[in-house]
Amino acid sequence: MKKLFLIFLLTLNVIYGFSFNYYPIEDEEKGKDTIRTLNLDEFVITSSVKETNALKRMPTAISVISPKMLKSRQVNSLTSMSGIVPNFFIPNYGSKVSTPIYIRGVGARLGAQTVSLYVDNVPYFNASAFDFEFQDIQRIEVLRGTQGTLYGRNAIGGIINVYTLSPNTYQGSTVEVGGGNYGQMEARMSNYSKFSDKFGSSLALYYKKDDGYFINNYTGKKTDDSENIGGRLKLELEASDAFSASLFSVFDHVSQGAFPYMHIDSTAVNFNEPSSYKRKLFSQGLSLKYQGDGFVINSNTGYQYLNDEMYMDQDYSPRSVFSILQEQNQHSISQEITFKSDKKERYNWVVGAFGFYDYRKVSTPVALKEDGVGMLQDQLDRILSNIPPAIKPSITYANDRIEMPGIYRKPSKGIALFQQSSMNNLFGAEGLSLTFGIRADYEHSAIEYFTETQGVEINVRPPNYPPHLPSISMKSDTLMEGRFSKGFWEVLPKIALQYDLRDDAFVYFSASKGYKTGGYNEQSFSKLLQNAMQEALMGKMAAGMPSGGGTGMPAGGTKPPSDSDNSEMPKAPTLEEQLSYDPETSWNYEFGGRFSFLNKKLNANFSLFAMDVDNIQIIHLLDKATAGRTVSNAGKSSSKGVELSLAYAPTNSLSFFSEYGFVSAKFKNYKSGDTDYTDNYIPFAPRHTLSVGGSYSHSFDNGSFIDRVTASAQYTGAGKIYWTDANDAYQSFYGLTNASITVEKGNVGLELWAKNIFDTSYNAFYFEAGDLAGNTNPLVQKGTPTTFGAKLRYTINY
Questions:
Q1: Among 37, 356, 465, 481, which is most buried by a count of CB atoms within 10 Å?
Q2: From CA 232, how far away is CA 321, in angstroms rounded?
């Protein structure tokens, strides 16, 4: 351990001249310089670049998570926050490629998200970037309910703001190593230094791996192993009392086995193709701040590059039917400028502008393999079986593999103007305040597509065809190429009334509008191309068969329309209509409050909410999950519920908490084909979330063998979770128990931890997939079993 730490110090010294320094801070009470030893848990700064109310006074449901809370509740990534915030849930889909966030019953498994993520005021545009390792977090804010006025697109369910430590606020170094069962290993190193009164820098690095939890019966090996490495560099300059700047750069690399989907009655996966996910993520941000007389100007510039590769055995079986390799290459640029009042006056305001450009290139080479081609042959044989033997031809596929490569470019851009104001002591009434705002958003999105089939060839032998002659070969590869685009405007108002009952208690009512962006489905092309391929084959056969050997179908493979058909048949949707989906909009209504009791030892927050969503975007698995996924608009939904948070700290060393959320999220006016799903529960959103726990810390006298012992435990539960629109499959309420104990001596800390202590069995994800025989198989992603381990930490605060 000592050698590892020395290597770390040497590395930092080479990189940017690391040294052990402290800076005296004036003690206002004693009037002299003192050395201030700061603990990371102390830092919860509640400033914001665009809110007109302090976080603790905001008229909205908000949870602020401190470093101490992250540590005691064992939160190391966004996905591990499920349940610790009321009505906040993230299902595990088997890899980091998708991190769908559900708040108040509203979420999205594909396409645009309903909850947006910001890290140090820089937006993350792709849910594939949401799941990253937390390190040196200063605070996390979860704003529940529609936040469209200040944040714009994709904030129907809420906003997550993640802030990392500032080297100008905290100076110190940490080295941490750990391990556990299932091959878990991790190492973290960080240094925060201030080189002068005006300039500070930080460097944080991490490495994490595990061997996976689930066996693939086909290979006899674990299928979901994972390895993650990354780091963050931050530079901060306080040039003067008026001007400051912050620059950060983040790198994250993930390589993992993925999608350990198994039959619901099984304990192991069983597929022959490798399933994996790899991701490289770069994120950069530049923040500039100018402090004027009574106002402040903030500029936040962000750039993100994401490159990932997903390989999936999409028939989820030991047969070679259908596999997909999806590669994403994404560049995102954003710029936001805010001009905000900075005096505690009766009237506070903020005005701002936001713009972005996002370019995403997706490559999805789908392979239909020998068993898949055999499935097409079976379909063809069934069609031919209806033809009388005297005129029935023999038709067979010539190749045992059909490739369907596709490249899709999806540029989008947008601009927004927004304003928000807060008026205190409204109409002269002490404690009554009004917050109101409005935002105008314009967005333009497009898709450029190029996809084709390779290897589509059939051998045809007409009836009574001379046996000595070779079969007639017909090649019918299909190409689809083109471009579509569209733009849309949204106006997003907000209003909130707040009344202070006393200094530490208030209630509020708010109403706000939000929207989730529309776009185009690139994953729909798998099904569209298969249909076009089969139609082209039928046309080739009809056109190429000798007289008397045809199928009774004209060239093109479609029945010729009659006069009655022209009047009765509905107009077929265009290709753009099949690919396109429109924005989803919502109105959120909320009544809530915050209270402190017992000299601020007991704090309580509550909210009652109702949300109406129009043009809701629904995810469909095509052909029983064997032909990709698609997004479409389908009617309306409503979400109603309650949230309650309690925190009680009778002493400085003992604390308890409880977080509960209930939501009833249902479809309204939603039909798919002949099936009516109206009043069914929205899938994947738990009706209840619950988290209860506590923490106790005991400090020993000077000279003791140890300085302090801290023990924490929590129980977190979620359910009932419906998995399908029909509500015919679900996960009942389940709960996980986690605990940890930390022993500290000087700068050294040893933590022992365990998760899912009682090895609760549950399904984290469920879907239905078809097989070659036409059966529907229920597949699940099992929950993580009991894990435990230890961490050794060495920290220097200076």
A1: 356
A2: 42
In single-letter form, the type of residue at position 170 comes to Y
Q: What is the pLDDT of residues 725-735, one digit of tens each?
A: 999 999 999 99
Res 47: pLDDT: 60
Closest CA to 735 of 769, 759, 711, 771: 759
Note the pLDDT tens digit of each residue in 352-372: 999 999 999 999 888 888 888
Across 315-345, b (16+ Cβ under 10 Å) vs e yields: bbbbbbbbbbebbbbbbbebbbbbbbbeeee
The pLDDT tens digits of the residues spanning 415-458 come to 999 999 999 998 888 999 999 999 999 999 999 999 988 888 88
pLDDT exceeds cutoff 50 at 773: yes
Place of tokens 């191309």: 529
- Three state DSSP letters for 375-426: HHHHHHHHHHCCCCHHHCCEEEECCCCEEECEEEEEEEEEEEEEEEEEECCH
Q: Categorize the per-residue pLDDT at 627 as very low, low, confident or very high, splitting at 50, 70 and 90.
A: low
> How far, in Å, are 134, 180, 225, 249, 788 from residue 185 at the CA level?
16, 7, 12, 25, 11
**Residue 466 pLDDT exceeds 70:** yes
Q: State residue 80 phi and psi, 5-degree precision.
A: -85, 5
* Mean pLDDT calculated for residue range 86-104: 89
Token pair 């979420």 in the structure block, residue: 107
CA distances from 99 to 102, 609, 674 (A): 10, 25, 32
Q: Is the peptide bond before 720 cis (omega within 30 degrees of 0)?
A: yes
In whole angstroms, what is the distance from residue 660 CA to residue 718 CA? 10
Dihedral, CA of residue 522, residue 523, residue 527 and residue 528, to nearest 10: 0
Average pLDDT over residues 314-337: 90
Place of tokens 């006298």: 701
Span of 64-78, 162-176, 451-465, 709-723 with lowest mean pLDDT = 451-465
Write the CA distances from 758 to 715, 737, 762, integer angstroms: 11, 7, 12
Print burial letters for 617-642: b (CB count within 10 Å at least 16), e (below 16): bbbbbbeebbbbbbbbebbbbbbbbb
Q: Which residue has the tokens 């805010």?
A: 338
Distance between CA atoms of residues 3 and 8, nearest Å: 9
d(C-alpha 707, C-alpha 703), whole Å: 8
List, in order, residues 6 or more apart from 344 with CB less than 8 Å away. none
Segments of 517-569 assigned E as strands: 519-520
**What whole-number distance in Å separates Cα of residue 444 and Cα of residue 486?**
6
* Assigned token pair, 769: 């997939």
- Rounded to the nearest 5 degrees, what angle is found at the Cα of 183, between the Cα atoms of 178 and 185? 25
pLDDT for 547: 43
Q: Residue 533: phi, psi to the nearest 5?
A: -65, -45
> C-alpha dihedral over 429, 435, 436, 442, to 10 degrees?
170
Confidence grade of residue 749 (pLDDT, cut at 50, 70, 90): very high
